[in-house]
Structures are given as C-alpha cells and as structure tokens.
Amino acid sequence: MPAAARERWPAVEFRAAGAEDLPFADGSVRGYRADTVLHILSEPERAMAEARRVLAPGGRIVLTGQDRDASVIDADDAALTRTIVHACAGGLGSPRVARRYRNLLLDSGFDDVTVEMHAHVFTDAAMPPLLAGLADGACASGAVDRDRADDWLAEQRRRAEADRGLFATPIFMAAASVPASVPAQAPPRACSEW
C-alpha cells in the first residue's frame, strides 16, 4: 500500500506503522483517519490513546468501520445465518468496536464527538462472493460444517440470480476533535478541605 500510494502521490511522505505505536511526535499531527482498522485490533483503546497523543490541539479524528456482528442477511434459516455471522465476527480482534466508537473517543479525551450510521446494501451478483467469505470463516472456526455452509451459499446464489437477495452491513462513522486547550488544573486541596 505505501508503495502504491507513493507512486500515485510522489510529493507526499508515507509511512507504515502499527496503530498502537505511531512514528510521530506528541501533538504533531492535524488529522487522523482510520478506515476499517480498529476491528482487527484486540485493544482498540491503545490505538485511540496513540491517536490522541499524536494529534495537536484542535486536531480532528475520523473513524469508519463495520459492526462485523450486526450484518443483516435475508435467508430461509435465520438461526444458521446468525451462527455464520457471529462465527465470522468472532475471528476478529474487536468485531463490535464500531458501535463503541463514541465511547472510545470520549474515554480518550476527545471533544465534539459525532456518530453516523449508514449501511452497505448488496442485492446483486456482488452479494454471493461476499457471503462466501462469511461462510468460509464460519467453517474455519468450526461453527458450521462445509455441507451446511454450501447449502446456505447455494440459497444465497439463487436469491441473487432471482433478484431476491439482501445482505446489509452497518457502517459507522465517528468524528471528534482534540480540545483546543487543556483546562487549567485546580490546585490540590489541603487535607482539611476534604
């Protein structure tokens, strides 16, 4: 990715780093954006603390991502569908982190936190390959055997071919700011004031 980015924008500096250990000085960055990243981390709180560290006063942060455990799929066997969705989500570090964006930002000291939710909806030929990935993940985890997964996928292909399929996944977007200035600390109280 950095090589492709450098080729496309040669005048811009690109670096690769882990979200929990960014190669920037404290308060040296004006903007931070994480697209579908936090769900793969086991401790997204560490990434938010690091984002807060590198952002300058007044800096902005934007997070986008899917709630991997809240996908909606129209299927004949609702219980099997839930099993497949939950099993696939269970293989990620933080599959439900997107629903926690607001609190993660507030807990990390950000202000002016806003959250929006949209959905990607698939009803056409793009749907079965996406669902195949979910089914494969459920099989790999042992939650569903291959024959049941294949039957479920065959139903989803039939639905897509008949223009009767539906796969929707919620996408959350949260934005916030670093406070422009740190409030003055109150002097410590003497023991007699407690």
What is the H/E order? HEHEEHHEHHE
How much helix is in the residues? 25-40%
Rounded to an integer, what's the Rg over CA atoms? 22 Å
- What structural class do you assign from the helix and strand content? alpha+beta
Assembly state of the chains shown = single chain
Measure the end-to-end span: 56 Å
Number of DSSP strands? 5
Q: Tell me, briefly, the overall form.
A: elongated
List the helices and strands and how they pair.
Elements: H1 2-8, E1 29-35, H2 44-54, E2 55-66, E3 72-73, H3 78-90, H4 101-107, E4 111-122, H5 127-141, H6 146-161, E5 167-177
Parallel strand pairs: 1-2
Antiparallel strand pairs: 2-5, 3-5, 4-5
Helix pairs in contact: 3-5, 5-6
Please give a quick description of this structure.
The protein has 194 residues and is α+β, with helices and mostly antiparallel strands. It contains 6 helices and 5 strands; from the N terminus they run H-E-H-E-E-H-H-E-H-H-E.
If you had to describe this structure to a student in words, what would you say it looks like?
The chain is of the alpha+beta class. It is 36% helix and 23% strand. It contains 6 helices and 5 strands. It has helices at 2-8, 44-54, 78-90, 101-107, 127-141, 146-161, and strands at 29-35, 55-66, 72-73, 111-122, 167-177. Strands 1, 2, 3, 4 and 5 form a 5-stranded mixed β-sheet that branches. α2 (44-54) links the parallel β1 and β2 (55-66). The longest helix is centred in the C-terminal third of the chain and has 16 residues, at 146-161.
